[in-house]
Amino acid sequence: MKLPESQVAVLQAASANDAQSIERLADETGLKPETVTGAAFELESAGLVTVEESTDETVEITEEGREYVDDDLPEVRLYEAAIDAGADEAAVQMGRVIGQSGLEGPQVDIALSNYARKGYGTIESGEIVADPDADPERDAEAEALAALDAGESVEDESVLEQLESRGLATLSESTVRSVTLTDDGVTALMEGVETAETVGQLTPEMLTSGEWRDVEFAEYNVEADAERIDGGKTHILRQTANRVKDTLVGMGFEEMEGPHADADFWINDALFMPQDHPARTHWDRFALSNPTEIDDLPEDLVARVEDAHHNGVGEDGEGYHSPWSEDFARAIALRGHTTSLSMRYLSGHEIGDLEPPQRFFSVEKVYRNDTLDPTHLLEFFQIEGWVMAEDLSVRDLMGTFEEFYEQFGITDLQYKPHYNPYTEPSFELFGEHPTTGELVEVGNSGMFREEVLRPLGVDCDVMAWGLSLERLLMLMYGFEDIRDIHGTLCDLELLRETEVLH
Ligand code: PHE
Structural domains in the chain? Predict the structure, then answer.
């Protein structure tokens, strides 16, 4: 029988009555463990060896754990200081006990948070009491740390978990494989195995010389277990943003670009948002301190917008009859929605006057001073879009949403009438969360009002929306907390493992 070199080596090193670990075979053959593993799997599929797998849990003491072996656990030091101070007879001022214990910095907190949990006593209103029956000599965690430090094993899972959660030990699991010769393996060895000269890689030289015709190529086992390597990859939020862009481009939309920090004029005034609207107070917006205002607002447009705010538009127009200040409009803030971009484009300010029909979109960040919770962040990505054409209706808007969301597997949209100062009618969109079944608001939309369009110089219909990219992800992948995918608390494992469908 002819076999590749590494397989011959492993076969010869393996034994029929003694299962040998990959490490041992690697030592014996001088091959790398991964080469031995590969060879062992090949031999197994040829029926010459069996490969057994088991999971091995290794526990290691950390640097901090080792310190406590030498200096005692902080809670034990606190207990001993408390006993010395007489806290087993009467409550003692905590400051005094801490001072005597010599604990410093973060160790004080560690001591306090473990003291009562482990029954050393109680801490109440700044006073500490010690339980005279507690025995620090028999502290299970201290004993386990000492055992680990001495290279002994610890069986008590709950103590190990506690040590792990305190960062005093690390637990890890690994797969251990061992190899045993089968009867066929023994027979093959007795009959004699020879090394087959196999080639692992085809080279340009082999191709030009024609040598490739005569060599024997090594076979690869593409199903063999391999070490997992987590390379960098595009974040699923970014991947989905790109997919949203592709989808909208496919639906005939062009992309808008514009400033993240913009004049309130574009963020609010052009949208017929009254200057005393609650969303425009400092509680909701992130103002800029440098620079604080913009100077290049288009004067004609500013005058028309101001007029619309005062008097409304058209014969039956009705304005807000409240003060309107240009200074207020010039103030710069982080945009709370990307509808500021829609205003810039619709007004002709960004790329010149636009003739209907037109379709534009952006997938960009917006900033809101919300309270953080599972569905709200201080910033998120908004999928902004609008269509400008003659005679549009809410049906066109719904049809566009249905077509868009269908591409992401969402076909159960629901609509609810809503109010925006700048659209009439307006409605919010909802989708069902795939695991909780709850209705999740995914966006807000409507037909821009005359009071918005006239000053901009647009005299046909414009339907528009702002959708949340993060909420779309929640519906697509079933995330329940937006912070799993966004920001410093995000769940790296989930980000690594989520497959993005293209
Ligand atoms: N600006 C709205 C929001 O942020 C979305 C929207 C855009 C609604 C355009 C209607 C028209 O919620």
Answer: 2-59+173-217 (1.10.10.10), 239-497 (3.30.930.10)
